[in-house]
Structure formats: C-alpha cells, structure tokens
Amino acid sequence: MSYRYKKLTRRRFIKFTVFGATIPFLGGVIDEVEASKASKAVMKYQGSPNGNEKCSNCIQFIPGKKSQANGKCKVVEGSISPQGWCTAYASES
Ligand code: SF4
Q: Ligand 1 centre and the CA of 92: distance in Å?
C-alpha cells in the first residue's frame, strides 16, 4: 500500500483555511452581482441590433470566449448575444 504522508505544517494549515474560506465567499459575491443586475424584460432586451447599436459595441458588454459567442453584460442579467440590444445601450463616443 502506497501512502504519502504530508505533515500538516502551520503554513499548509493556513493555506487550506484561507483557500477553503475564499471559494464560497467568491461564489456569494458573484451571485450578488448577478442578482443586482436588471432583468432583460425591464431593459427591453432583444436578440437583434437596433440599427448600428448592438451589444458588441456597447461599453457594458463583456465578450464571451469567441467573438460570436454570447457574453455577459455589466447591467443586464443572463447570457447576452453580441448581436443583442437593450435600452441601456451606451457607446464610447
Ligand atoms: S447594456 Fe444593453 S446593449 Fe449594452 S451590452 Fe448590456 S444588454 Fe447589450
């Protein structure tokens, strides 16, 4: 039987304690941020552009992993299409 014993040092104990307490805390913060966003219905979100205005060129948009993939929005909850639009649209200029 192979058993690798690692001594529980003070440093290792602190690492595990801090890491273990941080993960649930971050999960709670992320849930609160998402819950504080406006609903798509309230912001009149639509999955298509409004003329030249669309999520991909809005300052509130957080892109997904690929340019055509859905991303997130800083103010509207849920998955957001880069081709979408809502009444909170804001451009840089
Ligand atoms: S604010 Fe509206 S238009 Fe801008 S990224 Fe969010 S959902 Fe899209």
A: 13
Ligand 1 atom having least distance to the Cα of 73: 6
Atom of ligand 1 nearest to the CA of 90: 4
CATH superfamily of the 38-93 domain = High potential iron-sulphur protein (4.10.490.10)
* 8 Cβ contact partners less than 8 Å away, ≥ 6 residues apart: none
**Per-domain residue ranges of the chain:** 8-37, 38-93
pTM of the full structure: 0.70
pLDDT digits (tens, 9 = 90+) for 32-47: 777 799 999 999 999 9
Tell me the CA–centroid distance for residue 24 and ligand 1, in Å.
29
Whether 62 and 33 have beta carbons less than 8 Å apart is answered as no
Q: Pull the structure tokens for residue 3.
A: 């058993």
